[in-house]
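Researcher: I'd like a candidate sequence for this fold, 257 residues long. If you have to choose between options at a position, lean toward the conservative one.
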């Protein structure tokens, strides 16, 4: 029997159910779940029905038993993909950062936000830093615009959210006009990379390129934020950035004829 405290919050009860069903490959009936967890029938019934309706559990139509559902598999695949992406990408990001003495980031889009999941900081004494937990809206910054224009999640955001979003102006260079932003996104599709000319922070520029998976889907973006002469550094860094993005893409299974 799985032990539980005498007063388990709802989220803990869900966790108990998941743990129990993970250990029972043939599934369990509601009655069996109640017995093994020593939980009230009404509580288990409510939680099971909710989880089943949301796709987290599946029910065998003949036996009436419940087992873990496809929604958990989908979420697990996302986590696995992210973990694999982190492990595979990091050496390439470190190599790029070392070669130019600049910060290099790997970012993903989830919902309405851009999340930097790996940050390799420059070893220079004067350098750009990124606070832990920092997130950005997709319409700002080089990585955000790459993911907004080229990823499936970005396309969904562009179609269903962006038209109703007030574009916040972070600096004088932030693109706050929707038509102008759409034009920039179209250009990114043609160019295959994105630029940030002091859009998020005054004095900081950036370039970004997409990462493709084995299904030819854009799943992340590599970016280089930097101070200084934009045109000179862009000319120097862009070929290295594109090569890094291509190497990571190939390493995770992307093949482009």
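Model: Candidate sequence:
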């Amino acid at each position: 029997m799985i032990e539980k405290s005498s007063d388990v919050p709802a989220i803990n009860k869900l966790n108990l159910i998941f743990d129990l069903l993970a250990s029972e490959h043939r599934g369990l009936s509601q009655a069996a779940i109640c017995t093994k967890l020593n939980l009230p029938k009404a509580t288990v019934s409510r939680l099971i029905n909710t989880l089943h309706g949301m796709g987290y559990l599946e029910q065998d139509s003949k036996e009436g038993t419940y087992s873990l559902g496809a929604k958990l598999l989908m979420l697990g695949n996302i986590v696995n993909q992210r973990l694999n992406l982190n492990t595979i990408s990091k050496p390439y990001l470190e190599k790029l950062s070392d070669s130019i003495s600049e910060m290099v980031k790997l970012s993903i889009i989830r919902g309405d936000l851009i999340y930097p999941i790996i940050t390799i900081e420059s070893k220079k004494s004067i350098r750009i830093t990124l606070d832990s937990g920092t997130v950005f809206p997709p319409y700002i910054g080089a990585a955000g615009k790459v993911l907004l224009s080229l990823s499936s999640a970005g396309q969904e955001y562009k179609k269903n959210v962006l038209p109703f979003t007030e574009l916040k102006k972070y600096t004088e260079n932030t693109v706050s006009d929707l038509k102008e932003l759409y034009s920039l996104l179209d250009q990114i599709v043609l160019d295959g990379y994105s630029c940030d000319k002091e859009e998020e922070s005054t004095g900081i520029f950036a370039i970004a390129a997409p990462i493709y998976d084995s299904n030819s889907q854009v799943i992340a973006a590599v970016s280089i934020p930097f101070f200084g002469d934009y045109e000179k550094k862009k000319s120097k860094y862009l070929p290295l950035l594109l090569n890094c993005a291509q190497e990571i893409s190939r390493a995770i299974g992307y093949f482009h004829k």
